[in-house]
Amino acid sequence: MFKLGGRNGLKLITAGSVTAFAFMLQGCVPAASGGGVASSGDASTPATISQADKAEGAKAHPQLLQEFGGAVTGSQAAYVEKVGKGIAMQSGLGNARSDFTVTLLNSSVNNAFAIPGGYVYVTRQLTALMNNEAQLAAVLGHEVGHVAARHSAKRQQAASRNQLLGALGSILSGVLLGDSAFGRLGQQVFSQGSQMLTLKYSRSQELEADDLGIAYLQRAGYDPRAMSTVLESLARQNALEAQLRGTSNQVPEWASTHPDPASRVRDALAKAGANATGITNRDGFLTNIDGLIYGDDPKQGIIDGSNFTHPVLRLSFQAPDGYYMVNGTQAVSINGGSGKAQFSGGNLSGSLDAYIDTVFASLTDSNQTRITPANIEKAAVNGIPAAYGVARVQASNGPVDVTVFAYDFGGGKAYHFVTITQAGQAGVFNPMFKSFQRISAAQAGSVKPRMLDVVTVKPGDTVQSLAGRMAYSDAKLERFLVLNGLQSNSTLQAGQKIKIISY
After folding, report:
1. Does the pLDDT of residue 325 top 60, yes or no?
2. Among 52, 83, 216, 238, which is least packed, fewest CB within 10 Å?
3. Which domain holds residue 403?
């Protein structure tokens, strides 16, 4: 699984409805039957994709598309599909290119994965981070390698022994509470954390998938060193995002199961050979991905600093000072040292009090006891009817407050925050609650996506001058260097293609 942090887009769900995807990935990657995949560590064994795997993959495919923002269409997607099918064929899993379905996902998460049945996925965000076709083939080959080595079957067995946390609980419990006091918190409301479930490969499995991906690259005639260089770009991107969030000293979530990034880069280079050669097709790759949306898609909401704006839903709010946001498919998470929160929405068929009760009904503590507020208070925020309830819950490290703050947006729609803080500190989110507002059509129309723009270096252009064109107010140089796999002392040549981010 190639994921080292990122964002995806907010979508509406019905409060209280069961979001099955949090556990769906366990069901859609069963152990193959009848020789459906090659044996672990043997990428050369010819194999067919079993009918059972095809059926499971076909069932999971539309759910995965929904979870990861849908499929990108057009020439960019067709190019990724061509490269993906080509590298997947090197695994021996299928007898024809038509055995594979390769999808470019409309997601701002740096992510790629594959599931049995011949389904391979990569996000536009991760694709934009790459700098040549060999790197794209490396990432997709790594994911196919997980399937070829039957890692998902082994992961499923481990999951059956250790019940996974619910979506919001998996984010909040370990970070804020230090235990599983809210193991199911948000399981029936949010599914953003479901993307985390696809990270549960072991260190040895990640290294094995790297090795298999390198073997596939060599067979296809690509430069096998691409595995090392794309891993380096991923590590640098993750470090930059952590720095921008002010969490550079924290161990990233994936580090508990993933090998140390630096050693993984070195291992991949050693496996490929420092002097290896092969096709990279840098210019062709850059030409084919030019114009991809970069970062948040306005259709899914935009995070800009501490502000979240959704031009389609016509709303916005602001996170408290010192907090950072992550835009997920089902919710926006808000993270900081004094508490955690998520923003989502649903259908409002009754009173706002009933809506809040429904949200609370989906939350349970570690004893599977329903969390209920002491009372529900009425409020009004920027002309929008609102209400909130606070429940105090005992956790292992002391009492905590769980708050649900909801808004009647009209038209049968409601939106709400769920927050967790140490007892007595729920007010830290008051500025955020009060910032929620409608936006005008003009404000919505002013929200523009960032785009990947491939430009040709002109005489006199420098790293610094091109970095100055990046569509950001901060860390322009750092973003430019990571995006292009460059160092601060890198020099550019006239005629060279390079990536910048523009509006």
Report:
1. yes
2. 52
3. 298-445
